[in-house]
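[Solved] Which block belongs to which protein?

Original post:
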Amino acid sequence: MTNSHSADPRQLFTVLTAGALVLLVVHGLGRFIYTPLLPYLVADGQFSAADGAAVATWNYLGYLMGAMLAIRWHRIDQIRVMLPLFLAIHVVTTLVITQTDNLTVISASRWLNGVANGVVFVQAPALILEWLVLRNRASLSGLVYIGVGIGLLVSSGLVTGSATLLEGAERWWPAAVLSIPIAWWGAMQLRRLEVPVRQHDDSGQVVSNTPLLDRASIPLFLSYAGAGLGYILPMTFLPLLAKMTLPQGHGLLNGTWVIVALFTIPAPWLWNKLGALMGDLPALRLNFLIQLAGVLAAVVWPGAVGLVLCAALVGSTFLGTVLLTQRIGRALHPHQGPRLSAAMVALYGFTQMVGPWLTKQWLDGGGTLGSAFGIGVAALAFGLLFAFFVPRADLWRSRS
């Protein structure tokens, strides 16, 4: 957008808005909209609840595969091509699903939509972070994740607002129609970002890739794995836990997801600010403590109090974990930014698939859903522990 390594407030706003909007599209209108849609699709007779769960699994698998593809396509010149392409794939797969009740086609579309989500969720923030680093504004990078929180509310509003007007496959039309202009505008803005195709060190030499795993990144990867497993349990099962533990007609039966959404929206700004004030690594450790307390609350107080605390504390932290970890990884290995980001999101995606599977094994073994949240507590404790083994970026690079 400019040949000099500087950016005025208008440029910063445009870039961050574009990033937030593309995440709103792929995560809010792609992934999260399926949660409020599912009960309506089952009630319409499009498929059963079990089939709906299988469709969700295909989407999760696609997300993991998309993040793995982003490891391969991590260079800036590749991102400039792949980012618009996969935004287009999101739009096309959403349009396809508006036209069919065939379970195989729906599953394939949701799988491919998940692939697009995984690629874009890695590449858009990674590209923006590289652009911001060149302008000494890396501390603003987390603001792009505001789009995820807003996407929660937008997707819920689209489903509720059109509930009596549409039926079956038609229920996907609002997401498809809204995705088209937003995806196009966001892609056009991000393609214009001027970031060097190949990175150079302080002496001007081209930097080549070094091993992705080392003494600095391994504990960060392990910490992030704990975060992925820990947060996915409440984000998947919190509304169901409310239904199982609260009396019929209780206001929180549909309220826990709204609480999560409302606390998610300001979370990127909050953790962005805390990271800038106290340092990203101390902020990440604090983030883990708060998130762990939230999941623990659902175990210790299996009623309204625990549900509210879990929704509020997890909603206000899980995106902070993402943005802080991505930034710490970039600081530890400046030349590995997009590649490291992709590997972390792939790991996060894998642990998100493991969480529901472990919960199923727990329930099949006679455990309760409330006690299954203890898996999330243990995972977050694991993540917090390894967060203390991650070295400070300045000290690590001074040794390299």
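(Second protein starts here: sequence line, then its structure tokens.)
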Amino acid sequence: MRRTTRIAAAGLGVTSLMALSACGGGGEGGGEANADAWILTGGGWPAIQEDFDRWNEANEDAQIDIEAIENDSYKGQIRTAVGSGEAPTLIMSWTGGALLEYAEEERIVDLSDHTGELESRVFESVWQNGQVDGSTYAVPLNDVQPVVMYYNQSVFDEVGVEIPETWEDVEAAIETFNENDVAPFSLAGGSVWPALMWLQYLTDRHGGEEAFQAVVEGEEGAWDNESILFALETMQDLGENGGFIDTYNSVTADQNEDAQLLADGQAAMLLQGSWVYSTINQDFPEFAESGDFGFTSFPTLEDGAGDPSNIVGNPANFWSVSADASEEEQQIAFDYISENLYNEETVTSMLEAGSLPPLSDIEDQIAETEDSDFLQFSSELVGEANHFQLSWDQAVAPEVAQPLTDNLSQILRGDITPEQFVEAMNSL
């Protein structure tokens, strides 16, 4: 029977977990009942490590042992560990297809009765990502990263164009910018993954979250959806007819080249993740402090079926609890989730670092931060969203992620048609 999930844009259909031997499971120190968790290195993870350190200091009889693993290695290691029944007590995921798979295979436990007051604090659009069939199998643990539209106000002023609110506004702005030899949009097509943001927003604005949800459910031929085709056709049109900067296929995001084009006034707009706000402030301070650096939501598609409040990006990383852990280990994890997640010290640390917890009760704290304007904008964007779609490259199964990127790259270069893209993805 077809399962109905509340995962906000996840991976392809459920595939069997591989029963392989794993390197995880069991605490490294303390008693046998110690719980354990794997976290990632770098980024905002030191704040999570500090949170665990505070927990362990305050809970001598409920220790959680931590191991930090590099991002690329983690994805393979955790799937192996979960599949073999040797997963850490707390299982981190990006939700999506992995979470659905774990729930279907009964490798994680239902957390619906173990989250305390957390659900009332977390934005609904984020909380949805941890649900399967109405039950909570994962809870967010760190910051939220929506994709937003950045713009250079001085470029708009020079050509007399208003910031677009609808797709008709976008089309009119493109025409005016082209007449004035200005690139409407910067895009790091050479990196490919930034183009996924365009594919997601256009698909969602045209057909709503259901368009990609069919892919999540593993429906046969799910990629052959009119909204996905619309998005692909629109992207190719933007590339061929002056919507994207002419050199978009050679621009990369690794060295923030797409952000530099915006800061230098060579492009009027840039669709990118919320992390780019900090990048621009750090790497291009003159532009950031000029008063011309702005941000807004993705335009509404007038005749689209999607909710214009829907957003895409990274809702957060999430914790699940292993069904293979002992009752004692599970109870430690339940207590950590219900009593400790997003405590005052951790929230303060995240905000000071410019990260946004997905919480509805921190408006006063946000107002006191140095980046309050952007954090408040992002918080309202997430809080008002009907649906928050996980980035497709994180959402799909590992064996699908690379073909998705490869085929999208060919779309950007004009090497294949949208129909050929759909055929290739459906054949996987």
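Accepted answer:
You had them paired correctly. Confirming on the second one: The two ends are 22 Å apart (CA to CA).
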